Amino acid sequence: MSKAQYDLSAQLQAHLPSFLDALRDHQYKRAKESIPLETAGLYEWRLVANFLHMWADCDSTYHKMTYLQPEHLYNDTLRGLYLQLKTQSLVCAELLHFKRRDKAGSDSDLDKMGSAPMAKASTPTVAPSGYYDSLRFSYQSDQTVRDYRSSVGSVGSNLSEFDLSFETALTVRIIEYKAFLDQCSRYFEQRLLLVSFYLGLARERPHAHYLFDYVEKREFLLNIQHALRTLEHPLFQPLQRAATMEVLTIRAALHCETMLAEYNYLKSIIALHELKQQLSAWADVLDLVDDDDAPETIGELRVSRTSRNSDCLPATPPHGRLSIENPPHCKPNGITKLLKRGESTSNVLQQSSHSLSTSASVHLAPLDDDIVLPVYRWSKRLLASLTAKFTLYFNKWLDQIDAQMQPRGILPAPKAVPNHVGLVYMDFLDTFFSRNFLRDHNDSAQLMLVVDTSSLPHAGTGFHGQGYLCPPKPSVLKKPVVPAANRIRAANKTYFGKVSRYDEDVDGEFAPLWGVGSWPVVFSYPKADPPELFVKKHWPNLVMLLQELPSPDAKAKLKQSSPIGIHHEKKMGASYVIARVDPSVYLALVFERRKQSPTDKVLLDAMTLLLHSLQHITVYR
């Protein structure tokens, strides 16, 4: 062990705890100010200080999500910087690496080792569970090694090399800081993967009809979650807990989206509830950060927790998103605290001088429960988008429940639930149809959500247009003996998508639908169910067009620049506007053309808005 290693560990002990506390509180400017760049006579410290400053810059940009802005979306700057951090953390760990000696040393022996070549850094290994808990070492107060010469001299004269390496506080401190820097490389590797995950959602897709494989993405996040568990160093506990909460929340959101794509009512509503619980747990972690730093804000935090229990987001400003720009003659100020409650948005959302973003303005978005953390707001917007999608997919079922909930109380009507940008689907459809279709179009124009039950799990045997069936009585009835020839459900005799799922076979299970009946309508506007004559006239053409849509696989090579197809049938005088929302769910607008029919551009704009909202593209970008 050299004198430089001792001095370096002493500097880490003096400055690293306050740096990590500032990172935990998302106070990145304060984190940089806690690390001095220069220390007299210690060249190695400048390398470590630059590493810590870059860490604060990268985490600031990561949590503010400025790298997802259009001007930075394809730069890959943040990914490259996290890759540099991963390498630099190992270089800094190498500075604290030393060899064991065969016998007890002296003060002069320790000084001589300063010029000896360092051993090549080995690949960091995962410490056994509970290893760091067993270490009797304090990172905050080590009063035993303040004087280098006296402490090292006494140790060298009284203890063996084994004792010097593993039992003295001085050596344990160096070993622990090296282990911390080794684990930093794994931490930055997971950060790099999360940045790639967010960029993959926000960037352009391989082709117009491509759909994300959310099951694969959930497995990707699960691997990150397992890797974060290996960060057992005590100094990593706050950062590891915050990162794990983030990953768990996103995985819960993707699970909900997967259940919605399978049109599974029960699992979808359970997944929505789990996502809301996970967001609440994440918010509690953020509240704990404020409780530690500002005990006098407990009253404000209680108000925040009560407001968090509501599903409704704050109203969007009437003039859209605001922009707060710094005066050109003023130097931009750093964000004092992203989690600060009770501050005005003009103070909280000022441009940070240490941010990697060069933008001169920061967009103001509606605050979520007074927690000003863009990563958290991103997840909260995704919850709002999933909730609005759920109310549209299961509108028929929810309407029946809604009719029985009088007086309503504080719950909003399903038709009035907005998505993350304040868009209420039913209000939008009311406006669109009133502007583009005359009253006599009510029987000849329908916007529908159509489900391909044959592509659902188990061939759609568990599909029900209104969610699920519940037995009228809890008692179990004895099954009558019925000949096999009579075990035919009436639903298998349905024609043109008019399906009744209330008929069960003798086994109490649903038989799969067949023919055009396997393409039922789960949502229709302006009529709750498309007219029978309308279905018989247009359903064969519509099903054929839906089946001819390109594959959503990433390997498909397509020339289409739009995921929305517009087809005009001259003989029938009808138009079909179709798009795939999920692998088994389609959006279709069918109308018979009149003199005042909407133009293709109007149709394309309206369908694009609906499609991007249902696929959460406006959240990802």
From TrEMBL:
Pfam families listed in its UniProt record: C12orf66_like (PF09404)
Example GO biological process: cellular response to glucose starvation
Superkingdom per UniProt: Eukaryota
Entry-linked InterPro entries: C12orf66-like_central_sf, KICS_2
Identification of the protein by name: Uncharacterized protein
Organism: Achlya hypogyna (Oomycete)
